[in-house]
Every structure is written in C-alpha cells, then in structure tokens.
Design a protein that fits this description.
Blueprint (H helix, E strand, L loop, with lengths): L1 E6 L6 H12 L4 E7 L30 E4 L3 H16 L5 E6 L19 H6 L3 H11 L4 H24 L23
Parallel strand pairs: 1-2, 2-4, 3-4
Bound molecules: thiamine diphosphate (TPP) and magnesium ion (MG).
Length: 190
Amino acid sequence: MSVCFFGDGTTNIGAFHEALNFAAIWKLPVVFVCENNLYMEYTAIGEVTAVEHPAADRASAYGLERIVIDGNDADVVYRTANAAYARARAGKGPSLIECMTYRHSGHSRADPAKYRPEGELEKWKERDPIKIYRARLKQFGIGDDVVAKIDAQVMQTIDAATEACKAAPPPSVDILFTDVYADGGWAWRN
Ligand SMILES: Cc1ncc(C[n+]2csc(CCOP(=O)(O)OP(=O)(O)O)c2C)c(N)n1
Ligand SMILES: [Mg+2]
C-alpha cells in the first residue's frame, strides 16, 4: 500500500487527475491525502478553482467517495486514514482524503504571506492541531505532567532524527530510480 501526500496546489494539474484515474481503474492500494491549507505558492486555491474542495469535489469523477475532514483533529485523521488503509488492503482500491487545515506561514522562507486577510492566521492558530489535542487529552483526565513528558520525548526524537540526517552521507544518485518502476529499471521506456 502507498500513501501519497500533496498540497492543494497540486490539484489543478493533469498529473493529479491522471494518477487518480489510473489508481481507480486498476484498483490500486493507494491512499491519496490532500493537505488543503488554503494556499498555494502565492495564490489562494479558492481563487483559481471552480469547486470549493479542490480534491474531494473531484473524487466522483474517478468513482471515489467524497471525503473532506478536519485535518487539524488528529483523531479524525487517524480514524479516516485507518478506514482508507483497510479499503486499500482489502483490494477495494484507492481513497482520496482532503484534510482541511491552514498554512501558518508563507510558502517558503522568502514569502511573508502578506496576501492573507487580516485576522485569518490568528483565527486558525486557535485551531492549531497540537492545541486541540492538548485540550482533548485534558478532557480525558491526562495531567499536565504527562503531556510535558510527551513533549520532551517528542523533542528528543526530532532532535535525534535531525542530527542523524545531518551526520549521514549524501544519498547515492541511483536511488532516484528506486521503487519508481515496478521492475526496478527504466530501460523499457526506450
Ligand atoms: C509540476 C510543478 N508545477 C509548478 C510548480 C511550481 N510550484 C512550486 S510550489 C507551488 C504551489 C504549491 O502549493 P501547495 O501544494 O498548496 O503547497 P504549500 O505552499 O501549501 O506548501 C507551485 C505551483 C512545481 N514545483 N511543480
Ligand atoms: Mg497549500
């Protein structure tokens, strides 16, 4: 099974539609996950798309269920993903999940994101996924000390992974083709 993540900015190019169509006709075990954070490089996705939900509203064109979820709620994401994985593993074909979320910064460090309406960022920050999940844990009676411990563990894991990557040698060029074609090669293309 493959899980394929992409931004809202992907959904108006041909490759997105071609991939969905192929996955659907061949019932491939793929879970497509669109992170709809409302913005592409410098453009709001809503300004250049004819439908409200750039991924989910196209799903029916490929015989797929329309799935739009709150991407800032980890439990909802988890449950939806599990159902899609089960479907893929059972040979029932792909799923397309549109996760609604928000981009807290510009597209890149060079983008101050001044094109966003005033107050929008602040509003979405209230719905930060980590904030939401902290509140949920509290609701279930999990103490602040436990949450602080989880925080510290996560920071440690991230730091260790960052250091491991920085210390690793550059990857070899031949991995460019690893797992790209089913037979492991590309000579057949000629
Ligand atoms: C095939 C292709 N077309 C155009 C671009 C130029 N480009 C770079 S980022 C981007 C928009 C990406 O939007 P999104 O996926 O929503 O990313 P986000 O800023 O939300 O992370 C575009 C059009 C590209 N990299 N590749
Ligand atoms: Mg985006």
